[in-house]
Give the backbone structure.
Amino acid sequence: MPPSQEFVDTSPKVSDEIKYTTCYMCACRCGIKVHLRDGQLRYIEGNPDHPVNKGVLCAKGSAGIMQHLSPARLSAPLKRVGPRGSGEFVEISWEEALQLATERLSAIRATDPRKLAFFTGRDQSQSLTSYWAAQFGTPNHAAHGGFCSVNMAAAGLYTIGGSFWEFGEPDWEHTRYFMMFGVAEDHDSNPIKMGLGRLKTRENTKYVSVNPVRTGYSAIADEWIGIRPGTDGLFVLALVHELLRTHKIDLDFLLRYTNAAWLVRDEPGHAEDGLFLRDVQGHPLAWDRNSETAQSALSPVPSLSRSPALSGEYELSDGRRGRPAFDLLARRYLAEEYAPNAVAERTGITADTMRRIAAELAHAAFEQQIELDIAWTDWTGRKHNKMIGRPVAMHAMRGISAHSNGFHTCRAIHLLQMLLGSIDCPGGFRYKAPFPRPCPPGPKPSGKPADVKPNRPMPGPPLGFVSGPEDLLIEDDGTPCRIDKGFSWEFPLAAHGLMHMVIHNAWAADPYPIDTLFLYMANMAWNSSMNSAGTIRMLTDKDPATGEYKIPNIIYSDAYASEMVSYADLVLPDTTYLERWDCISLLDRPISSAHGPGDSIRQPVLQPDRDVRPFQEVLIDLGARLGLPAFVKDNGSPRYPGGYTDYMVNHQRLPGIGPLAGWRGVDGDQQGRGEPNPRQLEKYIANGCFWKHDLPANQLYFKHANRDYLNYAHSQGWIPSAQPIIMQLYSEPMQRFRLAAQGHGKLLPPEHLKSRIAEYFDPLPIWYQPLEESATDDQDFPLHAITQRPAAMYHSWGSQNAWLRQIHGFNCLYLHRDLAAELGLVDEDWAFIESHHGQIKAQIRTMTGCQKNTVWTWNAIGKRRGAWNLDPAAAEGEKGFLLNHLISELLPQKNGGRGDRMSNSDPVTGQAAWFDLRVKIRKAEAGEEQSEPQFEPLKAVAGLRSRPGILRFGEKFLPRNSWRRKDKA
Amino acid sequence: MTSLPKTTQKKLGLVTDLDICVGCHACAVSCKEWNAGGHSSPLTDLNPYEKDPMGVWFNRVHVYETDDGENTRTVNFPRSCLHCEEPACVTVCPTGASYKREEDGIVLINADTCIGCKLCSWACPYGAREYDSDDGVMKKCTLCIDRIYNENLLESERQPACVTACPVGARHFGDLGDPDSDISKLSVSRGGYDLMPESGMKPVNQYLPPRPRKNLPGSTGVKQQVQNPAQQENKASSANGFFAWLDKTLSSGTAG
């Protein structure tokens, strides 16, 4: 039979309108082209001109249509009328909702502004939210960084003036050796995928993945190192040991760009022991081998740069004694305890492998040196006719950050990079604007007792960077000022706060009770909290004396019916990302690349068909209603009557510097600095909703010491002066805290924290056993349990997405087949997984690409039944599960130890230690095939649309007369 | 049963690089998104928010572990219609609905004459056919026939959606019948292979195998292997040796 003839329309109309905006299906901020037909979404694709994704788009981005059409979208403001968690709400008007919020918040502000705790999740407007909090006058503000990245952000900023995550990037074009630590599939995701594709297709480049699990990016690595969780620091310091032992280090780099030569006072017992020796101007000193005198280490005199001592002990003319920082460093890491042979068993990596990797790193760095014919001038004025690179690049994310030793491990990685001379050089790790910034960083956090007054803004932002005990936010008696205890003796470098402790502390009234918990886009009643079941109890717990909730008032804003919505008293419904303005700002988390600064906007592609408002718009409105000085004019009228767009264009944080850097000045001809431009947003839209500036070639590398770059960065307001950024191998702020713990200075830690601070505030990187691990018995809980990030799902958002949930509809617990065999488990068995804190039940799958003492699952796939407007029988709730139920927000109480258990967090920064979890597993004999724990299904909140039983998206774009159109009726 | 063209003027198809596919599903979802509103619209999803959601997908990504003893490996494997030269899914079709285009070799289904008998999906050894029970017809990858010739798109956009979206650059589109095309040259240079050649259907699409891993001593060019210092004789104190080297190097002025 011949084929039946068919007319194929090979040139159908695609769209009648294309609008550019910025994706928000994860934190990657890709540029997208949205095709509309008849005013409806037809297709979303990557914007080929966009600096982040250059036309590609990931699974999440392509599924944006289904996020926009999700039946879990909230549709009107809600007021709770039943008990918390009952899901009983009534729809109210925005006016009523805003009045309710204003009345409550006004009363707080007039009495004790601390009683508002305002915390935000994965939003991209933190410069606005933190500004609002400071204007309100509460120190109790942070975004979600405390449970995400803070130990790595802090380690980077205190060490190299920049950091991993999406704030830096490997030199994908030139690197010859790329090492990735841990799961990294969820940030900068398209740039990393593009980069991996690029370097993997070069013959001369090697990619090493260090991760207990071999999926995703690790699957394509040339070498997969299945490390034991939490031991990356030991592995890295063993590499440091090897490089020192084999004399493969970049002394030029260390002398020019780091504090290797700075003299550290060496007088144990002295109040300044371990601090830098300084001259009368306060400049750190180095020992000049030629003149045999101490001289300012910041001197630009070229002769000194050749002759500082890096080892030995020296006595100054005034009798002070000290050693170069590098001397201390080399002595420490040359010790046998850091040798590969000594750490092999603990890391699960053979000593031979570690020695080989070190040799390969050294070979790539020093024998495959890259020379680019680009002349540049360093900060001393010395001209260089080439840019010389050490083509070794590194990247790290949660595999490091989610451990309580992550701050030090991240510092260890930066130390390794510095020894190899591979920071911001061709082929190395590169900064993205506005980084690098001075190191140690500023500004300091506000929120000391004197900073918080009724009806007054705080003098500065609630988050910042401390450089010693005097910067802590503590009361006279040493108790924390913040509800999350950030910047207290418990977590001194808590640069992003501790969002994961807010509900616990507010419930416990420790250090004090609050009135209102105001959350945005943070699913704290489920996957964003440790101890989810306990968190739900705290959210619903009442004071028996008064019958009131222990957390009296909860205001929550979200676009979707997440688990958290059911626990709010007032719900402010947000829009989808295609219905809003946003600005991805240089004041916040911009879209810069190593090639230059950039920022971007979202514009509404569609108008909401529900009674919802963008959260930023609401926040600005609330700011005006509350009379926050920055949000009202002198006459009390709103300062930004045009809402968020008015703020984006007209707000100036400093003269000439606002949320958007492009097309500033009344004529739109200025970049970075300039008067507000009333037509700025039009310019962004005409340019595909982004702005970027390409740095000239002579500013592309060595930004920390590049005179022309530093001048440019200073002109843009990114750095306070054009002075070089000197990397801190040895961290003096750490030593200041340690001295306090040793009894020096006016401010001393409370007795019970002294040994903790003395131990963990080492000015050089250390490794210690993760805290939960050290507080549990290996025999009782012999296994590590961690999560990985699926590339096709972002946190909890994707389960409401009809397409993405077909990819990851439920999760299993994965383990090595040899371990499974020991435990008598086979594929699809159900098992109980138990930690010191709780027990869950899950289905297992075996594999070989997994470290043998580690079990893992995908992050945030498990849902509470009924949430996200999914059928309560959906697999996400019936079979899906969270490890969160096994993780306590508090450390185990070891051997009947102290009653006031510390937070399960990095002791330096307060970063949540999700991956420190230790478990044991046993087979669940025949029973119901359902994950545990299970909770009462959540009731659908008011205003949710009914779920279609069949989804025929796209049929409306078929010809009108097609028999396949069932939407005609 | 339906006849095939004797030859086709082109052999349009895809080359997928299994060395760099990270299994991110970008291809699968961009395909779903484009085609849901395209030639074979809709790509119906049953129970989209209930238990057991089940939709039509032209491209599905599988993750396997290969297992040859100690050397196991994770392979991400995107699977779609291979637009075979001798496709049994066409020859088995009782109505002529399933056909291979003479002009470019694309295998398509005429939805107007498909009776939904599913013989083709039984005949396809690659599992590439997707039955849309709501429409009662079979559907499959069209190689984005409504993109690749589409005059409403820019020249640079006339690629299958999966190729445009793929973040790692693992997917390539072109004429595999032309030995001088970029895609043919890529396939030959990288040892592109037929999936399951034993099917006898001569798939047009090719897969590029993973490259040899650089995970053995010497694979990055390091000539001398590092000895275990514990086994070396005359093991000098490493700290003393290091500081002597440091002094010498700084004094000689080679650093700085």
In short: Chain A has a mean pLDDT of 96. The two ends of chain A are 37 Å apart (CA to CA).
